[in-house]
Amino acid sequence: MDWTSADIALSLGVAPVGMAKVATADGGIEPWTKPLLGANSPKLFSVDSGDPIDQVAALKPDLILATKDYNLGESYQQLSQIAPVVTYAKAPNSDSWQDATRGIAKALGKSAQADQTIAKTTADIAAAKKTHPELAGKTYNFLVTPQAAGVHAVNSTADVSAQFLDQLGLSLSPAVRSMPDSSIPGRTLVSWENVSKLDANLLLATGSPSSLKLAQATPGFTDLPAVKRGAYLPLQPALAQAIAFPSSVSLEWALGQLTPKLSDASRK
Fold it and tell me: Model's pTM, two decimal places?
C-alpha cells in the first residue's frame, strides 16, 4: 500500500503483485525499485485519494503491507477483510526503517534475511561516513516546500531524513533545532524576513519545481552565504524521497547518489 513497504518486500526477495504508484517517478516506480523487480510487473495503483479497496481485492493478495500507508486509518477495516495487514506501530513513517523491515520480514518468514539486510545497510552508512570525513561536524538545514509565507525546515533530529544525514557525520543546525514546531511536528516555519536564520554549512531543499523556484527568486534566500558559495542542494524528488521514506534499498541508492553531492557542497 506504499512504495516503501514494497521496497522492503523486494529487498527480502518477495515481489508484490501490486504496489502504490509514485506520482513523481518515471513510470510510477522509484529508480532504486526498478532493478529489484526484474521481470515482475506488479499492478500499480494510486493512493492519492485513498486506498483503492476494489483494486486491491481484485489482486487476491495473501498479505497486505502498509507500514507507511497514510490512508490506513480509513481503510484498515476493509483491507483486513481481504488479507492480513502489516501496519505501522505508531503512525505512518514514524517507525524506523529497521523496525518496518523486521515487521514485514516476520510476516513473510524472512526474519534472518532481514537482520542481514539491516546489518549490511548500517555498515555501508558507517563506511560512507568514514570515506567522507569532510562531512564531519558540518551543519545543515533541510528546507521543505517553500511557499509564499516562508519555508518549513526540519527542526528535529528524530526526523528520518535528519537521521540519515546525521549518520554521515553532518549536524542539524543548532539554531533551527531550538525553533518551535509549526502545525507539522518536526518542522518549524520560518518567514522569508527571518530566512537568514537558516544559514548553515549546507542547505538542502525539497519541494515541487515551482516551490523551489519561489525560494530561488526570494532575495533573502539568495543572499544566504551558503547559497552564494554554492552549498545549496535543491533535491530532485527521488533524492529527497530516498531518505524521507527510507528502506535499506533506498538508503543504499542514496549513498551512491546523494553522498557525492553532499561531499561537493561541503567543500564550498
Answer: 0.94
